[in-house]
Amino acid sequence: MALTRSDVEKIAHLARLALDEEDIPRYTRTLSDILDLVAQMNAVDTHGVEPMAHPLDEVQRLRPDEVTEGDQRDKFQAIAPLVQDGLYLVPKVIE
Q1: 81 and 73 in contact (C-beta within 8 Å)?
Q2: Angle 24-43/5-14 helices, nearest 10 degrees?
Q3: What is residue 25's three-state secondary structure?
Q4: What phi, psi does 83 have (nearest 5°)?
């Protein structure tokens, strides 16, 4: 898919980017090459290919789900400006 100079200028305007005039031809070629690559990847037949979470067949190491730090709520709420029933009270910011 070949982009034109006006396409690149419109994209730059929508993205609020300021482009130098001498850079526009390079951006036009580069963006066209990227879109061509995407078109090539879309043309590949992936029917029957199972999606993968990771390219390597590795097992993720997980740590045990155990409590490593005690409850310190009372300690932190003691220095809070406003607390009620174990909750922090904050000013209303949305009307």
Answers
A1: no
A2: 90
A3: helix
A4: -140, 140
b (16+ CB within 10 A) / e for 55-87: eeeeeeeeeeeeeeeeeeeeeeeeeeeeeeeee
Instruction: Give CATH for domain 5-43.
Output: 1.10.20
Q: What is the pLDDT of residues 61-73, one digit of tens each?
A: 888 999 999 999 9
Q: How far apart are CA 35 and CA 33, in angstroms?
A: 5
Total-model pTM: 0.53
Cite the beta strand spans of 19-89 per DSSP E.
Answer: 83-84, 87-88
Q: Give residue 44's identity as a one-letter amino acid code.
A: V
